[in-house]
Design goal:
The complex is a heteropentamer of chains A (691), B (163), C (508), D (501) and E (99). Chain A is mostly helical and 691 residues long. Helix content of chain A is 70%, strand content 3%. In chain A, a hairpin with a 2-residue loop joins strand 1 and strand 2 (100-108). The longest helix of chain A has 44 residues, at 619-662. The radius of gyration of chain B is 20 Å and the shape is globular. In chain D, helix 4 packs parallel to helix 15 (334-365), helix 7 crosses helix 10 (239-246) and helix 20 crosses helix 21. Chain E has 99 residues and is mainly α. Chain E has helices at residues 3-23, 27-52, 56-86. The chains are: A mainly alpha (691), B mainly alpha (163), C mainly alpha (508), D mainly alpha (501), E mainly alpha (99). Chains in contact: A-B, A-C, A-D, A-E, B-D, B-E, C-D, D-E. The B-D interface holds B 105-106, 108-110, 112-114, 128, 132, 135-141, 144-145, 147-148, 150-152, 154-156, 158-159, 163 and D 2, 5, 9-14, 16, 28, 31, 35, 76-77, 79-80, 114, 117, 120-121, 124, 127-128, 131, 135, 139-140, 142-144, 146-147, 150-151, 154-155, 157, 160, 169, 189, 193, 213-215, 217-218.
Chain lengths: 691, 163, 508, 501, 99
């Protein structure tokens, strides 16, 4: 219980570490990394303890001290016959408005606990890994400081008790990603990427801010538990929930790299590879998924997930999985392959949430964190070996030089591809099952898209592995295996990728005592919608395995044995076109950019030039350019031209009339006298006539 | 009564004509001479109104002092004695317009107010009454004027003298 | 102690700087150090007084005016010397008392051309008296006088110690403000005659209740112009970029930190409480101008090529949030506005400090010529980044608590205001936060990231001096502390805001 | 002598309250003394100004004792009244006169002018003003007006060898004579229609007449035109800039301040005592005069290049501000009177100050061009600060006294609660912004521009000039910060009390 | 006798004087015209005095005459001063200061 009530310590430690590293890091023998590892390590231990405590708490049936705030609602829920286990809430006063006090505090439930564990574990491994990877970097200390802050922010996010706190942490995560992506800011592309990441996220944040506001006025509180309870009970109108859900979806799109705001994510590869691992596996991008899970009653009711067969969330997720997967095919940069793969997998999670498969989504989040981190760190290890390049065309044959990296990378890839019994299989299968069964209706479109992705995932990962590890080495120098401090985390993660899938074995395959443990402990029972849990389907499982295997096989044939439609792009115009479309990321960036920019920038020739030169530029750049151009125009013509000129003109007008009036003063006294007498006469005339 | 009216008419006509010559003649000395006629005429009108002390003062001060002053002034400034147009400036039309406008306004007001009201028959006021008044009710202005004359005297000397 | 503070506290805190100004003027000519010491001592003296007041303040009754002084001043028109401190004034008083000494410290070795410390510090101290007095005055005429007192010192500060285009900027600043305040004065007088022949801000809400509603609208209009120009609201903002750009660093800091607050404070303290009904009629238009200001200011920023001018334009946008909060006429909005004022004061003040230090080192603020600040003066780069983040409203830093609650309040404005309109404003304002991030980060990227431009690449650029640190840390710390624990301000302002808005909505 | 005359006939000698006349008697005595001293002590140049200054201060003593005494003294059936209004104005004239003497001391001594006569004439003019403050009938007003004007005509021409000086005197003299002719004609009309020269009597009579009498309208109008010249209201202001420029600067300040104030004193007595029932004429007339005066004055001032001319036009505009309350005299009553008196008091302080700086600066630059103020702040910061104080006071920026003046005007205009009053208030507001342009322009030159080459040493200011500056700046600051002091004077100055003899 | 005949005489004289002061360029001639105006006023005053049966009119006129004498003296002094410096009494030439 102690751990559950003092969860604030978990994010607090890395936060302190941030300050400490900044303050004294440079003077320490390991440049501050030791503080970071120590604090995050402690956080991990505490998270694990919290997890254990939570399991005990659930086993005890939610007894003991309940959350102080949710008591009233709990009582109501109890009356309705639920066996609800309330979140553990601890708060202190933060600020007050209009006479009401608003608290800040922690809220611990299954979701928080699993996130705490995931985040702190991945972060710890990334910390350790980074000590070698970033060795000798000139901003080594700063790097670790912000790594700590990043972790602290994400840990805060997952235990946030209210929406404001969530918003705060959400933005801090964005800030840290900005700093870390732009770590090597001497090069403009890196700082561009950082800017793009931050600004895109900011766009989504508008959705979050408005969503939070709508929920605040709808529910009258920032308290997440209360909001959820009200939403689940039907205490909020459907319109409010729908609006809130749409706004929050926008936030998810930007943070979790969902279509159409995903374009920042591949660019974010400009940061150091461990940072990419952290961003993609555990912290930044899953924040969106976490947020949906956190406000699930809002989405569930708002999008009518229980009764529809398609909805915004599910569609965005499903569409993103396919988009990500197809784009992953054409990348030449190994990190970009992984980045698009992440987008695709995040799409899975969002889709799962959209079809009502809450547990599947979180489970996939959890398993995905393990093999994704492993893949990224593996890629880092590869690049470490291959002269700091990520271009797969300059790799090849690395299998021989770096066996550990190879092995872990393959394990993680298989997990990702969904080969049983690795972790990815279980979670992915659950998602597909969720789509198949849906709530009252099935989600057929989601199922089809999900299956397509399952096939493609297997295929592109095979391609990546082939290009990297097989064939002949195409790069410079002699590659070498990375040191222990990098491979150990790889092995840990690979191990996790193997085993974590068993945490939520289907009831059909396992005894009750170990089946669906994840669902049992993690899925909230308090203030949570009634969800239909998908049944495990052997048919579907078999089909998905078939898809994965055939994907691997076909890709293998194509690359390793050089069979299949090679040179298709040369021979078929349609295929060439298709390839180009993919290579240009569906022309999405171009769409934002040049359509708007061209309309302002003018001649078509210019536009064609832009088409050629800037197809790869991002949506944010486009919008930014529009803003800049508009700003320029506003500033030059309206601000400096209009308002100002008016003011200046009135001044000039006054001076001009002054100049005119000066002519009265001719200097000749008799004209003055004439003015005096005439003035008297005219005034007298007027007054005598009028009065 | 008729006699008085005839006298008034004659004197008034003389005053107006002389006054017009004062402001139109091309010879400055002539102007001064016409001014004498005007001033004397005005003095005569004062007598007609029964204001004998004022009439006397008018003759003494104006004719005796001021006109002489003017003549000295004319000589000291060596104004050309022969007639020429340079006595006038180029805003005669404006001047005439302003004068006529003023006249119109003033006469309208005067006629509107007093129409054909008669002066009382006996308008004579003794000099002693004036004197009593000056030394009682109007003592302050009297004293002030004495300082005024002193100041004007001292100042005019300083201004006019060569140094 | 309490008795002493009750009787003399507010008077002393206001006039110690004025006495200091006289002393500075009386100092012998050549002794610059003595001048600086006296100036600093005076502003610190006022600051100490302020700390005593803050310590002694009864926080349980923050809604009530405390330390009230009420003495005869101009009997004929029943205008009195009334000073008082409540939860609305308190944060702004503290802000002023904090900023001025820091400005003096910053100027210690940084005195802008053409030097002349005596005149400079005299003006600075007079400025402080005016600013402090404005926040404390509880009588319209007294308020007006203090409100105007700040005008001249600022005018000279811009005009004498400013940039190349300083003369134009100074006169523009002056004329705009004077125009507004002339109409404001007419409004005050109209209140006096139509109300109860009093200028007492405490009594006026009741006294003005009987004024015909159309007349109220006109009176409010006069005040709107007076305060709106000072804020500055779109479209009266054009004096601001010029003034900010041309003013010396310290001038910009004070302008941003305190002067702009006078207008918004006027709305909160005077215009809205006294004429609540007129305020309701005006509110949608104020809100509209506020959101236009937010977007317009942001777009204006994107067009700038000069770092300081960019920061100046950002003030237009930020004050837009403040005004949006006020326009909602809700406690949340007002709290947000006050917090926003303090936050903007600290943050933008700091940004101007940074700009000033950049200018000292590179002798230019042309963004295209800058770059790689982080490599040459890393600490300055970090601080600039910190302030930029705070300025764009990052949660956890002070800027957020001015911005977010303002947006929040627009969702549900006071009863009687058009809800749909305000919700539209809310969305627009929220979009404004993106633009804010855009221009600030773009600025940050171009000035601090990358490598230094060729012309400065080989130059030895000085690191931050002790004076800069001493002047900045007291501003940086509150940005963080207030961001983490906003209740420091909200708990003080909230009761006072409730009281002010009582006549309007009765809370909620 | 009076006793002798009294024995001569049925003459009853008037009772004379010598205490009430004490200020004038002292002034007359000093005046004679100065004239004599000039004859006797030709060597001791310092003597005359000191004597004059002390004499003026001595005349203040009875003003104070009378004020302490407190009772209104009415003499000659109400033709001459010493009440609080009169005392406040007398004090104003005497102090302004004293400051002008301080300003003159070095100017006249160094210019080798006729010193004794200069001070003699100055004192004569002051005596006329002092009488004017108490004069309550047409004859007294006329004579006092001439006493204060005629010496001033000559003083304006005091720089005898200077063509501009001559021209200044000539213009002032001619315009003055014309104006007093118009004034006299107006007075004769009012006397004719009422049969009395007493203001209160005239007021009672014409107030009782039906509302529209062209004759009375004409009389009132001519009188106001006559004083319009004195206070330099547009279109009767034309002499002011030329005269100020050509006259010795101390005299320019004397004309701008004391002479203008004297015009206002007479105007106030007339408006409040003789025309109270005729606000149908006075109000629209004053409205037009005020609006036109302030606007034209300000607009022309924008284009001036000579500092004295600038101040001249500024004082024209200021006269417009002062006339404004009279445009609502019917509704505002005492408020309007207070406003004008307060404005006059404050205007005296700040305008004298500005002229004092002009004199001080001209000692170095020898030029009246505004351009010669360039960079003054750099080589003579104290003078620049003082000049800024006075200019911004004139512009009405708190806490300098000018705001109080503007404020009372606003108050009077709005207290009438009429549309015309409100509109005029807006006109005043707009004009104060226009005015700021040229005041600030001078400040801009002094502060923001570089000094001409070689100007490094600060300007030495002689003691008497410093004293004048000190008095002016203290007045400007104190009145601004403690407006109660000055509004108090405005309030006690009540013409209604003496309306009942 | 009618009151108005004197008053109108005064008015005419006044206006002739005004014409004179506006149209004469010779300084001395202008001063003469001024005398016309002042005499007009005096006629008015005396006539009103007679009309009202009051001595004040005459007293007023007396003061006017006295003051007029002083004014003329001063005026001539100034004209003389100008003549001495300029060798001319042409008022049109006295326009050094304007604007």
């Amino acid at each position: 219980m102690w751990f559950l009530e003092h969860a604030w310590i978990i994010p607090f430690l890395p936060a302190v570490s941030f300050v400490l590293i900044l303050a004294v890091g440079k003077r320490l023998p390991f440049g501050g990394s030791e503080i970071g590892i120590l604090s995050v390590g402690t956080s991990f231990v505490l998270s694990a303890c919290t997890g254990v405590a939570w399991i005990q708490h659930v086993n005890a049936g939610g007894g003991g001290e309940g959350g102080e705030e949710a008591l009233g609602l709990a009582a109501r829920a109890a009356e309705e016959g639920h066996h609800a286990i309330e979140p553990i809430v601890k708060t202190v006063t933060w600020f007050q408005f209009g006479g009401h006090e608003f608290p800040v505090g922690t809220m611990i439930d299954g979701l928080s606990v699993i996130m705490l564990v995931t985040v702190s574990l991945v972060s710890l491994l990334v910390h350790v890994y980074s000590t070698e990877y970033l060795k000798g970097d000139r901003r080594f200390t700063h790097y670790f400081a912000f790594l700590s802050l990043f972790t602290a922010s994400m840990l805060t996010l997952v235990i946030a008790q209210n929406t404001l706190m969530l918003l705060t942490a959400w933005e801090l995560v964005g800030l840290c990603s900005f700093v870390l992506i732009g770590h090597w800011w001497e090069d403009k592309p890196n700082s561009d990427a950082a800017l793009k990441a931050f600004l895109t996220n900011r766009v989504g944040d508008v959705g979050l801010i408005i969503g939070v506001i709508i929920l605040f006025f709808g529910a009258g509180t920032f308290n997440i538990v209360d909001i959820n309870a009200l939403a689940a009970e039907g205490g909020l109108s459907h319109l409010i929930l729908l609006m809130a859900a749409i706004c929050l979806t926008a936030a998810v799109c930007s943070k979790s790299g969902q279509f159409p705001l995903h374009t920042w994510l591949p660019d974010a590869m400009a940061g150091p590879t461990p940072v990419s691992a952290l961003i993609h596996a555990a912290t930044m991008v899953v924040a969106g998924v976490f947020m949906v899970a956190r406000f699930y009653p809002v989405f569930f009711e708002g999008f009518s997930i229980s009764s529809s067969s398609i909805n915004l969330l599910a569609f965005v997720g499903a569409f993103t999985t396919v988009v990500g997967a197809t784009l992953a095919f054409v990348q030449k940069d190994i990190k970009k392959v992984l980045a698009y793969s992440t987008i695709s997998q995040l799409g899975y999670m969002v889709m799962a949430l959209g079809v009502g498969a809450w547990t599947a989504a979180i489970f996939h989040l959890f398993t995905h964190a393990m093999f994704r981190a492993c893949l990224f760190l593996g890629a880092g290890s590869v690049s470490h070996a291959a002269h700091h390049t990520f271009d797969m065309r300059k790799m090849g044959g690395l299998r021989k030089y770096m066996p550990s990296t190879f092995a872990t990378f393959v394990i993680a890839s298989l997990a990702l591809a969904g080969i049983p019994p690795l972790a990815g299989f279980w979670s992915k299968d659950e998602i597909l099952a969720g789509a198949l069964q849906g709530q009252t209706n099935a989600y057929p479109a989601m199922l089809v898209l999900g299956c397509m992705t399952a096939f493609m995932t297997a295929a592109y990962m095979t391609r990546a592995i082939w290009m990297t590890f097989f064939g002949e080495y195409r790069g410079e120098g002699t590659p070498h295996e990375s040191p222990r401090v990098m491979t150990v985390p790889l092995w840990i993660l690979a191990g996790a990728a193997v085993v974590v899938g068993f945490f939520n074995l289907p009831e059909k395959l396992a005894p009750d005592s170990i089946a669906l443990r994840f669902e049992h402990y993690i899925e909230p029972t308090f203030a949570f919608p009634e969800i239909e849990h998908p049944e495990f389907s052997f048919l579907l499982a078999a089909f998905s395995i078939l898809l994965a295997v055939s994907g691997i096989a076909l890709a293998w044939r194509y690359f390793a044995h050089n069979r299949g439609p090679h040179g298709l792009t040369e021979r078929s115009a349609a295929a060439a076109w298709g390839y180009r479309v993919l290579e240009n990321k569906y022309y999405l960036d171009w769409l934002y950019e040049s359509v708007i920019v061209q309309s302002i920038k003018g001649p078509i020739a210019n536009g064609v030039y832009w088409f050629n030169q800037h197809v790869l530029d991002g949506v944010v750049n486009g919008a930014a350019n529009v803003s800049r151009v508009t700003g320029n125009w506003l500033y030059r013509s309206i601000d400096q031209g209009g308002v100002d000129r008016l003011v200046n003109a009135s001044g000039a007008g006054a001076e001009g009339s002054g100049q005119l009036l000066r002519r009265i003063q001719t200097g000749r006294v008799q004209q003055y006298a004439a003015l005096l007498f005439a003035g008297a006469a005219v005034l007298a005339g007027i007054f005598i006539v009028i009065i | 009564m008729v006699a008085e009216n005839i006298a008034f008419g004659l004197i008034a006509a003389a005053i107006v004509l002389a006054a017009l010559r004062v402001v139109t003649t091309r010879n400055i000395v002539h102007a001064a001479l016409y001014l004498i006629i005007v001033l004397a005429g005005v003095a005569a009108q004062y007598f007609l109104l029964g204001a004998e002390f004022i009439g006397t003062a008018q003759i003494l001060i104006y004719l005796g002092a001021i006109v002489v002053l003017f003549l000295f002034g004319i000589m000291l400034t060596r104004a050309p004695l022969t007639g020429e147009s340079s006595l006038d400036n180029d805003q005669r039309w404006l001047a005439g317009l302003v004068g006529l406008l003023l006249l119109a306004v003033m006469s309208y007001a005067l006629i509107d107010q007093f129409d054909d009201q008669e002066l009382p028959a006996d308008t004579v006021q003794r000099t002693s009454q004036v004197a009593d008044s000056i030394f009682s009710t109007y003592l302050v202005p009297f004293e002030v004027v004495s300082v005024l004359l002193l100041a004007a005297l001292v100042g005019a000397i300083v201004i006019a003298r060569k140094d | 102690m309490t008795d002493f503070l009750n009787d003399w506290g507010l008077t002393l805190v206001t006039f110690i700087p004025a006495v200091g100004a006289v002393l500075v003027m009386a100092m012998p000519k050549g002794d610059d150090l003595l001048v600086k010491v006296v100036a600093l001592a005076a502003s610190l003296g006022s600051g100490v007084m302020g700390v005593l007041l803050l310590l002694d303040f009864d926080y349980d009754h923050a809604g009530e005016l405390q330390y009230v002084v009420d003495k005869n001043w101009i009997d004929v028109i029943n205008s009195r010397y009334i000073m008082g401190l409540d939860g609305i004034s308190l944060p702004l008083l503290a802000l002023t008392l904090l900023v001025v000494p820091l400005c003096i410290i910053y100027s210690w070795n940084h005195l802008p051309d053409p030097g002349k410390p005596k005149a400079f510090f005299t003006l600075l101290l007079i400025l402080e008296t005016g600013m402090v007095g404005t926040f404390l005055a509880q009588d319209l005429i007294l308020f007006f006088v203090f409100f105007e007192v700040v005008l001249l010192p600022m005018y000279f500060m811009i005009g004498v110690w400013g940039g190349p285009n300083r003369q134009y900027a100074a006169i523009k600043f002056f004329l705009f403000t004077l125009f507004g305040s002339a109409l404001m004065l007419v409004s005050f007088l109209a209140l006096y005659f139509l109300g109860d022949a009093t200028f007492d801000i405490r009594l006026l809400p009741e006294a003005a209740a009987g004024i015909a509603s159309t007349t109220q609208l006109w009176i409010f209009g006069g005040m709107f112009l007076g305060f709106g120009i000072k804020v500055p609201m779109f479209p009266f903002h054009t004096w601001l970029p010029d003034a900010h750009t041309e003013a010396p660093t310290v001038g910009s800091v004070i302008l941003a930190a305190v002067l702009l607050k006078l207008g918004a404070y006027g709305f909160i303290r005077i215009a809205v409480p006294i004429l609540p009904e007129a305020a309701k009629d005006w509110a949608p238009y104020i809100g509209l101008l506020a959101v236009i200001g937010i977007i317009y200011g942001a777009l204006g920023c994107l067009a700038q090529t000069d770092m300081k001018r960019l920061i100046a334009f950002s003030s237009v946008a930020h004050m837009g949030f403040v005004m949006l909060g006020i326009a909602t006429l809700t406690p949340i909005g007002f709290n947000a506005a006050i917090f926003g004022m303090v936050a903007h004061g600290l943050i933008t003040g700091m940004l101007f400090f940074c700009a000033g230090s950049v200018k000292d080192r590179y002798h230019t603020l042309e963004i295209s010529r800058l770059g790689g600040l982080l490599t040459q003066v890393p600490k300055l780069g970090w601080i600039l980044g910190f302030c930029a983040m705070a300025s764009l409203g990052l949660p956890g830093l002070a800027g957020f608590w001015g911005e977010f609650p303002a947006i929040l309040s627009a969702y549900s404005p006071a009863p009687g205001l058009p809800v749909e309109t305000f919700r539209t404003y809310m969305v627009i304002a929220a979009v404004g936060t993106v633009l804010a991030a855009g221009y600030l980060l773009w600025l940050y990227q171009r000035t601090t990231f990358g490598v230094p431009k060729e012309e400065f690449a080989d130059e030895e650029i000085a690191q931050l001096s002790v004076f800069e640190w001493v002047a900045w840390i007291p501003m940086l710390v509150p940005i963080l502390v207030l961001g983490i624990y906003p209740n420091l301000i909200f708990s003080v302002t909230d009761p006072a805001v409730e009281k002010v808005l009582h006549s309007l909505v009765g809370g909620g | 002598m009076i006793a002798l005359l009294a024995q001569a006939g049925g003459f009853t000698a008037p009772t004379i309250d010598y205490h009430a006349f004490a200020p004038e008697i002292v002034l007359t005595g000093v005046l004679v003394l100065v004239l004599l001293a000039d004859l006797v002590f030709e060597r001791d140049k310092w003597l005359i100004p000191s004597l004059t200054g002390i004499g003026v201060l001595a005349a203040l003593v009875p003003v104070l004792t009378l004020a302490l005494d407190g009772t209104d003294r009415v003499m000659f059936d109400g033709a001459y009244v010493v009440d609080d209004f009169a005392l406040v104005m007398k004090a104003l004239f005497l102090i302004a006169g004293y400051v002008v003497i301080l300003l003159s001391t070095n100017y006249i001594a160094e210019g080798d002018y006729h010193e004794g006569e200069y001070y003699f004439l100055l004192l004569s003019s002051l005596l006329g003003m002092s009488v004017m403050a108490s004069a309550r009938d047409l004859i007294s007003i006329f004579v006092a007006l001439e006493l204060l004007s005629i010496p001033a005509y000559m003083l304006a021409a005091w720089r005898k060898r200077d063509l501009k000086g001559n021209e200044a005197g000539l213009k002032y003299y001619l315009m003055g004579v014309f104006a007093s002719a118009v004034l006299l004609y107006g007075m004769s009309l009012l006397y004719g229609v009422t049969g009395s020269t007493l203001l209160t009597e005239i007021g009672a009579q014409i107030g009782a007449k039906p509302s529209s009498v062209p004759f009375i309208t004409l009389g009132i109008l001519f009188i106001i035109v006559g004083f319009g010249f004195k206070v330099s209201a547009v279109p009767f202001h034309t002499w002011a800039p030329d005269t100020y420029e050509g006259a010795p600067t101390p005299i320019a300040s004397f004309l701008a301040v004391a002479s203008k104030a004297a015009g206002f004193v007479a105007l106030l007595s007339l408006v409040f005592l003789a025309f109270p029932g005729r606000s149908d004429v006075v109000e629209p007339l004053m409205w037009i005069l005020a609006a036109v005066t302030m606007t034209v004055g300000n607009l022309i001032a924008l284009r001036q290049t000579n500092i004295v001319r600038l101040l001249a036009y500024s004082s024209v505009a200021q006269a417009g501000f002062m006339l404004a309350p009279l445009a609502v005299v019917g509704d505002a009553g005492q408020e309007a009177l207070t406003a004008v008196v307060v404005y006059l008091l404050i205007y005296t302080a700040m305008n004298l100050g500005a002229f004092a700086v002009v004199i001080a600066v001209a000692r170095r630059t020898g030029s009246g061009e505004i351009d010669s103020y360039r960079g003054l702040f750099q080589y003579s910061p104290a003078l620049a600060v003082l000049m800024s104080v006075f200019l911004f006071a004139l512009a009405g920026i708190p806490p300098l006294a000018g705001w109080v003046a503007k404020f009372v005007v606003f108050r009077a205009l709005l207290s009438a609660e009429t549309v015309s009053g409100a509109v005029l208030a807006v006109v005043v507001a707009v004009n104060s912004v226009i005015a700021l342009f040229y005041y600030a322009n001078v400040a801009r030159l002094m502060w923001f521009q570089d000094a001409p080459e070689g100007e490094t040493t600060s300007i030495r200011v002689p003691f008497s000039l410093s004293a004048a500056l000190g008095i002016a700046v203290i007045g400007t600051l104190v009145f601004g910060i403690f407006p109660g002091l000055v509004t108090h004077f405005g309030d006690v100055a009540n013409l209604a009390a003496s309306a009942i003899p | 006798m009618l009151l108005n005949q004197f008053l109108l005489l005064g008015a005419v004289l006044f206006c002739i004087g005004v014409y004179g002061v506006l149209s004469r360029r010779n300084g001395v001639a202008v001063l003469m015209s001024v005398e016309l105006i002042l005499n007009a006023v005096s006629i008015n005053l005396v006539a009103f005095g007679a009309f009202n049966g009051d001595v004040a009119g005459q007293v007023f006129a007396l003061f006017v005459i006295t003051v007029a004498a002083a004014e003329v003296g001063v005026g001539l002094a100034i004209v003389l001063l100008i003549y001495r410096n300029r060798r001319s009494v042409d008022l049109d030439q006295a326009d050094l200061m304007k604007g």
